[in-house]
Amino acid sequence: MYGHGINEKVLEVEAKDALKSKDLDKDGKLNLKEFFYDYLRPEEDDDHDEDPRDKNVTFTNLDGNGDGLIDLQELMIWEGGFYFMEEAVDKILLLADKDGDHQATFQELADAWHDIEETGAQLPLRGIIIRALGEHEGEGRASEL
């Protein structure tokens, strides 16, 4: 289900299901703890794997209206992978834009590709890149991404 080009209605159903499963206080929105709550493994309610500062930044960035809660529309951005795509594009631009004009030419992207691959920034955009190359051409190059 996670990926690019997902149908809007399917994405909404997916997000509603996640919201229902994680919304412990049943207010129709997710606070920070509920958002990162793993309803599949509720007994593992610790943060030993992740830096809590990263969680706070992610949550704040996703909270588009700044109310301190994640609503259905904001959750759809997360569930559809769009949050990661924007982050990936920003990272790719940072690595490729050598002349500082806030744009990446094809040559700048090509020159920076090794650095982009090392960071893994291209991974959330893999589906878009493959489609842009063309289905039959992209399949042969998918391993390069």
From TrEMBL:
<dbReference type="InterPro" id="IPR018247">
    <property type="entry name" value="EF_Hand_1_Ca_BS"/>
</dbReference>
<keyword id="KW-0106">Calcium</keyword>
<dbReference type="InterPro" id="IPR011992">
    <property type="entry name" value="EF-hand-dom_pair"/>
</dbReference>
<dbReference type="GO" id="GO:0005509">
    <property type="term" value="F:calcium ion binding"/>
</dbReference>
<dbReference type="InterPro" id="IPR002048">
    <property type="entry name" value="EF_hand_dom"/>
</dbReference>
<dbReference type="GO" id="GO:0005783">
    <property type="term" value="C:endoplasmic reticulum"/>
</dbReference>
<keyword id="KW-0479">Metal-binding</keyword>
<keyword id="KW-0677">Repeat</keyword>
<feature type="domain" description="EF-hand">
    <location>
        <begin position="84"/>
        <end position="119"/>
    </location>
</feature>
<protein>
    <recommendedName>
        <fullName>EF-hand domain-containing protein</fullName>
    </recommendedName>
</protein>
